[in-house]
C-alpha cells in the first residue's frame, strides 16, 4: 500500500467516523485501545506508511471496524510529537528502519 492508497484508506475511515473525527483528521486506534485523531497530512509520512504496512500484515485490512495501528499509545504520542516538532528526517527514517527490522525479525521466528 503506497501514498495514494493510504490516503484513500484514510478518507474511507474518515467518512465512516465522520461524526467523531474533526475535519482534516482520521481516527486511528493503537493496540492498547487508545484513540488518536491524526491529521490527514501525517498519513503520507514514511512512519505512518510503515505502520499501515505492518498493520495490514498483522491485523489484515479492516472491513467494518476501526483502523488499528501496531503500536502502543506511548509510541504513537512519540510519533506525533516528532512530526509536530519537525524533527530531522533522519529521526523518522530511523524509526521506520526499526519498525521494518522488527517486522522482518518477527517473520523469521
TrEMBL record:
InterPro entries: SAUR_fam. It holds the Pfam family Auxin_inducible. GO terms for biological process: response to auxin. Belongs to the ARG7 family. This is Small auxin up regulated protein.
Amino acid at each position: 500500500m503506497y501514498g495514494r492508497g493510504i490516503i484513500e484508506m484514510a478518507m474511507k475511515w474518515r467518512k465512516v467516523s465522520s461524526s467523531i473525527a474533526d475535519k482534516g483528521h482520521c481516527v486511528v486506534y493503537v493496540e492498547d485501545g487508545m484513540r488518536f485523531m491524526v491529521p490527514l497530512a501525517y498519513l503520507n509520512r514514511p512512519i505512518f506508511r510503515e505502520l499501515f504496512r505492518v498493520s495490514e500484515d498483522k491485523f489484515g485490512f479492516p472491513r467494518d471496524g476501526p483502523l488499528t495501528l501496531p503500536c502502543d499509545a506511548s509510541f504513537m504520542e512519540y510519533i506525533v510529537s516528532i512530526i509536530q516538532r519537525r524533527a530531522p528526517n533522519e529521526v523518522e527514517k530511523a524509526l521506520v528502519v526499526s519498525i521494518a527490522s522488527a517486522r522482518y525479525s518477527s517473520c523469521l521466528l
